[in-house]
Each structure stands twice: as C-alpha cells, then as structure tokens.
Amino acid sequence: MNSLNLVWLRNDLRSYDNVCLHSAIEHAKRTASQVLVLFIATPDTWQLHDMAAIKQDFLRRRVLQLQQELAELAIPLLAIEGSSYADTPQIFAALSKRFVLNVFLQTEYELREQQRDAAVEQLVLSSGGQFIRFDSQCIMPPGAIRTQQGAIYKVFTPFKRTWLSALHSQGVTCYPRPKTIEQAALMLPEFTPMQTGDNSSVDWPVAEQDVLNLLRAFCREKVANYTNARDYPAIAGTSKLSAYLAIGVVSAAQCVARLQMEMKDSWQQDKSGAEVWLSELIWREFYKHILVAYPNLIKHQPFQIETNGIRWSNNQALFQAWCEGKTGYPIVDAAMRQLNQTGWMHNRLRMITASFLVKDLHIDWRWGERYFMSKLIDGEFAANNGGWQWAASTGTDAVPYFRIFNPTSQSEKFDPSGEFIRLYVPELRHLQEKSIHWPHNNGLVLAYPAPIVDHAVARKYTLELFAEVKNRYEHSANTTH
Ligand SMILES: Cc1cc2nc3c(=O)[nH]c(=O)nc-3n(C[C@H](O)[C@H](O)[C@H](O)COP(=O)(O)OP(=O)(O)OC[C@H]3O[C@@H](n4cnc5c(N)ncnc54)[C@H](O)[C@@H]3O)c2cc1C
Known about the structure:
By secondary structure, the protein is of the alpha/beta class. The protein is built from 20 helices and 5 strands. The chain has helices at residues 19-31, 43-48, 53-71, 88-96, 111-126, 156-170, 208-222, 226-229, 242-246, 252-262, 273-293, 316-324, 330-342, 347-360, 365-375, 381-391, 407-414, 419-424, 433-436, 455-480, and strands spanning 2-8, 34-41, 77-81, 99-106, 130-134. It has a 5-stranded parallel sheet with strand order 3-2-1-4-5, with helices on both faces. Strand 1 (2-8), helix 1 and strand 2 (34-41) form a beta-alpha-beta unit. The radius of gyration is 24 Å and the shape is globular. The N and C termini lie far apart (64 Å).
C-alpha cells in the first residue's frame, strides 16, 4: 500500500508558517510519497460547542479559499462534510483502506478535541501509520514557560517576563509558504463534499494575502498609537485580527515576526504601542497555558473554586435584556448590539458588558461566556473563558471582586463624545454628549428602555455576595484544618 502524508487542518488554516504542511511536504519529498490536505466540517459538534453561525460560515469560506490557494501549488485539499467528532475516525478508516497514513496535525487542547484525536491516533497507528503532532498554536507551547521551581505561572506579569526572555533567547521563526509540488492525482474514496455556509461572514476577507496585508498595515500604520487608541471603541485602533488568529489564518509567530520587522526600535520599549500589542498576544498564550495546566476550566469550573458558591440571581428577564442590548445603559446596549449585528465586539466593551452581567445583574458568568461564544466570529475557548473569569473575579489574575466598573463613567471615559453609542443605539442619536451616557434624566428619550437596575444598589449587593462566599470558604477552611 502507498503511504500518504495527510495534513489534517483544524485551526491552522494557512499555507504560510504552517509546520504541519511544511513537514508533510518535506517528508513526502524524502520518501517519494504523496501529500493530501484534509479538513472535516463537523456542524453538530460546532453546535454543541455553541459556535456562532458567523464563525461557522467564516470557517467554511476560509477552507474553500485555502483550497484554491493550495491548488495553485498543486496541493490537493479534500474538504469533507462530516457531522460530529464521533464520525471522524470513520473518515480515517476509509482512507486507511487505501493508504498507510502519516498524519500531521496541530495539537488542540480542549477536551472533546483531545478525545477525537486520541481515537483517530489509535486507528492510524493500528493501521501501521504515524501520528505526528505539532504544538504550534502558541509561540511558546503550553508548559514551556515555568517558574524557576518548575511551576506554572498563575499571574500574568511574571509569565510575560519569562515569556519575553524565552523570545529573546530563541527568537521567532516562521515556515515559508510551500513551493509547487509535483504528484500524480490521488485515487480517493468517495466522501460528501463540504457545503458552503450562509455567507454571514462576508464582510471579513478570507484570502491569506489580504489577511497578511492587514497585519502589515496594522504594524506599519497603527501599532505605534495602539497604547492611546486601543481603549476607544469608536476608533479603529486595534488590529481586528482575532478572528484570523482563532482559526489560524495567521499565526501568533507571524504577528510577532511582522511586529519586530516593522517596529525594530520600539517593540521592546516599555509601554510603546508595539510592546503593549505584544502583551496582548502574550495574554492569548497565557490563557492557553492556563487551560492546559488546569483542564477543569474546560469543564466550566472557575479557577478560584470557592466562587462556585456564589448565589447568582440568574434572572432570565434581565439576562434577555442584556443579550438584546436593552438594559437602559447606553454603552452596554451599544456593545451588545455591535456583537449581535457584527459578530465582533471591542475589547473594552467586552470588559464592560461582562462586568455588567456579573456585577450589576448578578448572573452567572458562564451564561455570558456561552452567549458570547454563540455570537462571536472570533469565539475561542481559552480567551473567552479567560476574559469572562477575569471580569467575574473568578479567574487567575482576575480583577479583584471589589473593583466594579461603573458603566456610565466607563462610557464617559472611553466614548466621550458618544460617537460609538450613536452608531448602535439609534434611539439616542439626537442626544448631546452630556446626556447620551445617561439619558434618563428629565424623561429625555421615551423610546429607549429605562435602566433595568440601579448601579449603586447592584454594586453594594455584589460586594456582599462575594464577601459572603469568601467568609464561608475561609470559615470552612479554618474548621477543616
Ligand atoms: C469577556 C471577554 C471575552 C473575550 N472573548 C474572546 C474570544 O472569544 N476570542 C478572542 O480571540 N478574544 C477574546 N477576548 C479578548 C479580546 O477582547 C479580543 O481578543 C480582542 O478584542 C480582539 O480584537 P483585536 O483582534 O482587534 O485585538 P488586538 O487588540 O489587536 O490584540 C491582538 C490579538 O491579541 C489577542 N488578545 C487581545 N486581547 C486579549 C485578551 N484579553 N485575552 C486573550 N487574547 C487577547 C487576540 O488574539 C487579538 O487578536 C475576550 C475578552 C473578554 C474581556
């Protein structure tokens, strides 16, 4: 039987800097064997994971685009319509009947993904093939950044320091785009071809070169001002690369390499735009490291386990108002409407809306985490879970529970003229900046919802909720020791 070098793509949908693709082609050259790239759509599992419809469409559009891009290099990409992870081994079984498979794949860290990969690995190995994993989601793979005592960092700042010294000593390398290959046509079993999506992500370009151009333009034109601009949702001051990083159209290594190239002098300078942007990429890695070290997070457990005892109110009507952007707090509503209408939300607004759900409405952060996942084009477990647990004060290196965002002063500070609010809350478009952040005085806007909670009262209650659980935990710790 012929051997086949199979690149199984999942969240690494790119041709540049793709270690799996690069290694499979090198292996094929050495052994005079063939290469096939594989993607399997699994809509039932995506649904189970609450993957947003816009992200599902984005994935499908990107795979079809990559199929064309690889065809230019004579590299075949087989895109199969599957259903769930449970069916995946059957696809490999069908291929194993014709070929001895050398499967090249990027490690995924979540639970069901690990189970799926273990099942396929067993099948491939038992048919005489190889299963070759690469830990390439991060520049520094999870577990590689440790304290001097060999422990995992639970706090970001020292993690970042060690991460940066690893970067200095080893640098960052990116694999080149493969060259055109020559191989005979493959005789493959029949599979159901992957379907197209609903086109809901059409505003997001999916050609690899376009995305690399976005990265270059951001590093050349915007990153220098990132420190000043990144907190203002009305300004396009961030890279908007998260959706591409989440499915691997671009890698973190490519981002850092480009940053170093364009900002040679400033990327190491404390608080420069380049250095602050690099920190965000390190946050991305930090949350993945934490996820791998504490797999209970995948089972929806808080990092600070005692916070499981918080007595959330979980009021369904308040949750609904938050989801729909009808809370009566303009910045919260504008943000939620941005999410619902575009599938993306600015980072400052993710912090404000998450804080509002947890600390003003007293709703379990896991409800918000799930809602975000079901709407975000860049929905990504580690970052979403990390962001929610940060805002809810349940996570590692989270905001202290007594630091509670005041949505109105956040609005005045980060959307001072109300420009962003006006974009998404048409009921308030006519208001001046002095009243747009709190339009409820003097019956200004009848068409706009009245505030669903009183922030000052809600704040006080949050402090009590957290204090109560901390006391209970400390008391039970004292009585058990
Ligand atoms: C409650 C909450 C939920 C979030 N959910 C997600 C999510 O599902 N997917 C996601 O990619 N990010 C998430 N984030 C992080 C952050 O909001 C987005 O990464 C960012 O807004 C994306 O915009 P950008 O690409 O312009 O970011 P930039 O400011 O240009 O940052 C560059 C890249 O760094 C990474 N990054 C930036 N900030 C963070 C952060 N705080 N944590 C981890 N990585 C970061 C992203 O990959 C981002 O694309 C969440 C944050 C919060 C507070």
